[in-house]
C-alpha cells in the first residue's frame, strides 16, 4: 500500500515483467486516476478503495483476454453482496451499480504480450464519499447505500479473494468462457433493459439489451431493424421508461 501515486495501473504496467502473478497495489489517493476512455477518476484521500492487480495468463488464447475486466466485475459484485450486504449488479461491460447508481469502475490494460500475457486490472470503489464529494449525481458510495461494512480492508480482502477464485476457476476450465459468461449474465443488470449505446463516429443504437455473448459483447435488438447487434465497445446508458417511449 502507498499513500499516494499517480495511478496504480500505471505503476504495475511499468514493472509488469519483474512482478509476480497476482501482485496487488493499493493507494490511499491517486493524483492521476483514470477510467475507461481515459476519463478522470478521483476523490478525497481515503474515501475510496483504489487498487490494481497484475494477472498473468500462461497458455491463454489472447482473444479471450477481454473477459478479465468482466470477470473482475463478477468478483466485485459478489464481494459487495457478501460482505457489505448491498444489492450490487453490473452495467455492461464492468460498471458496478447499487440501485442504479455507480459505486465502482474497472479498467483493464494489457501489460505483456506473448506466450504468457499479463493484464493489469484496476478497481476504483467509492467507500465513504458523501453526496457532495461524488463526481456526478449518478454515482454513490457504500456509506450512502448504508452498507453493512464500509471498512476498506475488509472489502479489499473480499475482492482479492474473489478475483483469485474466479481466475483459478477460469484457468482450471482451460480458459473456457461458457461458465464465466453464465455467471456474468446472472449479475448483469443491463440484460433485459432498454438501452442507448454510443458508438464511435457519433453513431448510436437504441434498443433492448437481450444477451451477453460468449465473446463478452452486449447484444442489443435494434429498434429500427429489429435485428440483434453485438457490440464489443461502446458506452451504454440504461433508459428509464419515460425515455424509451
From TrEMBL:
Its EC number is 6.3.4.15. It is an enzyme of class 6 (ligase). It holds the Pfam family BPL_LplA_LipB. One of its GO terms (cellular component) is cytoplasm. The keyword Metal-binding does not apply. CDD domains: BPL. One of its GO terms (molecular function) is ATP binding. The keyword ATP-binding applies. Transmembrane segments: none annotated. Keywords: ATP-binding, Biotin, Ligase, Nucleotide-binding. SUPFAM superfamilies: C-terminal domain of transcriptional repressors (SSF50037), Class II aaRS and biotin synthetases (SSF55681). InterPro entries: aa-tRNA-synth_II/BPL/LPL, Biotin_CoA_COase_ligase, BPL_C, BPL_LPL_catalytic, Transcriptional_repressor_C. Residues 1-171 form the BPL/LPL catalytic domain. This is biotin--[biotin carboxyl-carrier protein] ligase. It comes from Rhodococcoides kyotonense.
